[in-house]
Amino acid sequence: MNEQTTLEVLHKNVIELKGLMLSQKEILNLDEVASYSGLSKSYLYKLTHYNKIPFYKPNGKKIYFKRSEVDNWLLSNRVSTDEELAQSADNYLMVS
Fold first, then answer.
1. Exposed (0-12), middle (13-18) or buried (19+): which is 63, by Cβ within 10 Å?
2. What is the dihedral of CA 43, 29, 69, 55, to 10 degrees?
């Protein structure tokens, strides 16, 4: 393996380790939530400004998030599959 390939492999491993570490932490800062969720920091700031995502500001400056609340927020507003919608329609017609 050449030096560049070795560095690429190490970089990939570091990124994977960061992801594993984030999955174990319960309290995350803005940078960690951006990395964890794939959302940009500017979009996260916008979401916090409009109180669209749960967050904490213990000292009035730095923003923190509870990972479980971020997970719940990310999974909110579930969209039903076509199969689920068809089943709901069938159930409605049977009852009517």
1. middle
2. -70
Neighbours of 67 (CB within 10 A): 17
**Dist CA 56 CA 64 (whole Å):** 5
Please list, in sequence order, all residues whose beta carbon lies within 8 angstroms of the beta carbon of residue 55, skipping any fewer than 6 positions away. Answer: 48, 63, 64, 65
- At residue 39, what are phi and psi to the nearest 5 degrees? -90, 150
CA distance 83 to 42: 37
Write down the domain spans for the chain: 26-95
Structure tokens, 88: 């709901």
pTM of the shown model: 0.69
User: Using one digit for the tens of pLDDT, what is the confidence trace for 3-23?
Assistant: 778 888 888 888 888 777 777
Question: pLDDT tens, 27-52?
Answer: 999 999 998 899 999 999 999 999 99
Residue with tokens 């213990």: 58
